[in-house]
UniProtKB/TrEMBL annotation, chains A, B:
Organism per entry: Streptomyces spiralis
Record protein name field: Transcriptional regulator
Gene Ontology molecular function: any one: transcription cis-regulatory region binding
Domain HTH tetR-type: 12-71
Transit peptide in keyword set: no
Taxonomic superkingdom: Bacteria
DNA-binding region positions on the chain: 34-53
Keyword Transcription regulation: yes
DNA sequence: GCACCAAACGGAGACTGTCCCCGGTTGACC
DNA sequence: GGTCAACCGGGGACAGTCTCCGTTTGGTGC
């Protein structure tokens, strides 16, 4: 158990400003927003940015953990208020909407469900997969979902739906439609 | 009718070497392969590359037109040898495999079915959409496909499937599975 | 053959972005 | 208010994109 000493006041200040600015920049410009530009907008040097966040992915993840947690929490909320199958569909819908509207989020969610990506075992990946697992299990019990679909597969397929919808109009206008086509295929097999 | 004078011999030579090298580079490294590096490998200056191909997309497209045409031709071949629904599924499967194995191809196919992308009206887009249209119409007639699915939507969804499969293992091992799940949802509605 | 010149070449260089390094600064603690 | 580890920030090496322009060369008419 290493003694963790609290961050110095200036460090904490910079850290938080960076997160705030980064979240905005990634949302607007996607995952490839300029890091030096983010540093500048946060009023710090690029050295400071890279010390706090060794690479782009680290910053991206830090900027969106809370949003991911919110999505995970939303799963339980939906599970309480609707039938499992419906809750699942609605949750995936919201996931896709978030992926398209907040541009950096999609990349992050994608790498969270990528097999064998370095550093994939992150807080983000864990909580989103946990939420998916709970929803999938409930939906299976209700017979609203085939038994051979793994939670992580569902997340990957949802990512695919978001990608397809993005190609359509760039604003997610087709998510609902594409998702319902997919869900139709994921229902328990026809008699 | 403008008089088209043939390319000078050195120009044609360079043009073709660039295409060859670019196809290799994009296949290996994806759509973001370094253009200067491609020029160097082809033994020409970067100025020459940019004169022949004003931007990355132009080079990408030129490097893969023939491959896209082959995919489009393959559609007719499959249509002749199998039932429409099965032919469609197999064609989409091959499309996805190509998208994953030849890395730059996916980006190109994606932009070909993007609504409102600049320069979307290209030879690639036209021939791939044409092939999709023929397959979709045949499948519809057979009742193997819902009537409300547009050809271009199918291409977008296939792109989504390729994306999902790529997340799974990076090599397309799940394409068949994910595609069959999708196709299940695209069949004519249950009674 | 040869001279001409439009077409084509190629690489220097301006610009943007990433990331590291290290001399200077500052906040926390005594 | 002195000490020092932690932190800052910007300069700079490196890589990539794309343009500009002086130089070279292939095609053509003689």
């Amino acid at each position: 158990m290493t003694r963790v000493r609290p961050m110095r006041a200036d460090a904490r200040r910079n850290y938080e400003r960076l997160l705030k600015v980064a979240a905005e920049a990634f949302a607007e410009q996607g995952e490839n927003a300029s890091l030096d530009e983010i540093a500048k907008r946060a009023g710090v040097g690029s050295g400071t940015l890279y010390r706090h966040f060794p690479n782009r992915r680290a910053l991206l993840e830090a900027a969106y953990v809370d949003r991911i947690q919110a999505i995970a929490a939303r799963a339980d909320e939906l599970a309480d208020s609707r039938a499992p199958g419906e809750a699942l569909t609605e949750w995936l819908y919201e996931l896709c909407v978030g992926s398209i509207q907040v541009r950096g989020l999609k990349a992050l969610l994608g790498s969270a469900v990528t097999d064998g990506s370095p550093g994939a075992v992150t807080a983000c990946a864990t909580s989103i997969k946990g939420a998916a697992t709970r929803m999938v299990e409930a939906a299976r019990r209700e017979g609203a979902l085939r038994a051979d679909i793994e939670p992580v597969e569902l997340l990957r397929l949802a990512h695919g739906v978001a990608t397809a919808a993005e190609l359509a109009d760039g604003h997610g206008g087709q998510i609902r439609r594409y998702l319902s086509l997919l869900m139709e295929g994921l229902r328990a097999p026809r008699g």
